Request: fold
Amino acid sequence: MGKVDVIVLNSHGVGQVCHVKRLPRRGETLAAKNWRVEEDGGKGVTVSVALGRLGISTGYIGKVGCDPWGEMGKKWLEESGVDATFMIFDEDVATGTGLIMIDEEGYNTIVDGDSACEFLTEEEIHSAMEAMRDAKIFITGFGMPWRKALDGAKMAKEEFGLTTFCNVSPLPDGPMG
Reply:
């Protein structure tokens, strides 16, 4: 692992995309066409891949299942020049998936599955940040459980002195207090 300038802590999930004439109503089943798996790793991997492709030295922190979706995410990261050392594979969890339905007008509905990052521990996050302590910037977001994202941002800022950014999307249900 070389020196990284940016650390990204967020989820990896694989987007399954389909096209429909219109978005379904409650209780309705529609036929879809052009169903495919996109080269889209969810918020965390997508940001990491974009940074890597721009030539910015980036390290990714996240948890995935020991499954083809997790392997796909690691491959995307590595092909984009991102350090995937801290993409943690866990046989007890499944990599997140999402369903994206796009209607004929281009509007979409997205349903996100559970994030394997729910099972990412504070110790795993700390160990990864310690190994990448020379980084300057930390990016996280609510593509993973919001409390873990905020705890990671606080650790990055207070303990490692990193400039931190948090994408507060998707907003959690209920209060964040």
